[in-house]
Design brief:
The protein is of the alpha/beta class. The protein is globular, with a radius of gyration of 18 Å. The chain has one domain: 3-Layer(aba) Sandwich (Rossmann fold). Helix 4 packs parallel to helix 6. It is built from 11 helices and 10 strands. About 40% of the residues lie in helices and about 25% in strands. It comes from Amycolatopsis samaneae. This is ABC transporter ATP-binding protein. It is found in: Cell membrane.
Length: about 250
């Protein structure tokens, strides 16, 4: 589904290569500044103007690097979708949430009744009757559910989640992770970016470990979290709650 080969972004990301199969859930872990988010933004075609990606990024066989913004706009919100860490920066504070969920459906023409589809999506993520609410009227966890509903509106081939539960308390985090698992099912591939190994253990089948712009380890979740090969991965594991559970 997604094939990244030799991805480079100045000296910030160097020679990164990985694949994600259809319906596969892959975690990308590493400390802040390791290049995780830049890798995700390059897939979405959302890098800052001063940065340019090199190498190859193919979605379902189609090369994404170098395509026009018009073509990327057709893909984003349809075949590609992303959930960011802070929902308030992803939502329009002056627009009712039902309209925001309906917008990608209306733009891409994937449903005859966008408003009805939006209400069904909000209901599916546990927010019935909220379509006329504004973002500021919802809690942080509820806003993140809205963002998730928007991302899943058109059943994307690939969903990227960039630290979507970091700002949430443990109970709400568990609810959001549960929604991601159940709503994705086998329909979408997932790239889940986080520094939290416990989250990776719960959600992902494979793990990629990133350090200083490079991938330093990759394997199944069980392999990486129970028998890490790279010293940095061992340090991450030692610093996490998982170490105490082993």
């Amino acid at each position: 589904m997604l094939e990244v080969r030799g991805l480079g972004i100045r000296d910030l990301v160097r020679d990164v290569s990985f694949e994600i199969g259809a319906g596969e859930r892959v975690g990308l872990i590493g400390e802040s500044g390791s290049g995780k988010s830049l890798t995700a933004l390059s897939v979405m075609g959302l890098l800052p103007e001063e940065l340019t990606a090199s190498g190859s990024i193919r979605l379902d066989g189609r090369e994404l690097l170098g395509v026009s913004e018009k073509d990327m706009s057709r893909l984003r919100g349809n075949e590609l979708a992303m959930v960011f860490q802070e929902p308030m920066t992803a939502l329009n504070p002056a627009m009712r949430v039902g309209r925001q969920v309906a917008e990608p459906i209306r733009i891409h023409g994937t449903h005859r009744e966008p408003r009805k589809a939006a209400e069904e999506l909000l209901d599916s993520v546990g927010l019935p009757g909220t379509s006329r609410a504004y973002p500021h009227q919802l809690s942080g966890g509820q806003r993140q559910r809205v963002v998730l509903a928007i991302a899943l509106a058109n059943n994307p081939k690939l969903l990227i989640c960039d630290e979507p539960t970091t700002a949430l308390d443990v109970t709400v985090q568990a609810q959001i992770l549960g929604l991601i698992r159940t709503r994705l099912a086998e329909r979408s591939a997932l790239l889940f970016i986080t520094h939290d190994l416990a989250v990776v253990a719960e959600v992902c089948e494979r793990v990629l470990v990133m350090l200083d712009g490079e991938l330093v380890e990759a394997g199944t979740t069980r392999e990486v979290l129970t028998a890490p090969k790279h010293e940095y991965t061992r340090e991450l594991l030692a610093a996490s709650d998982l170490e105490a559970r082993r």
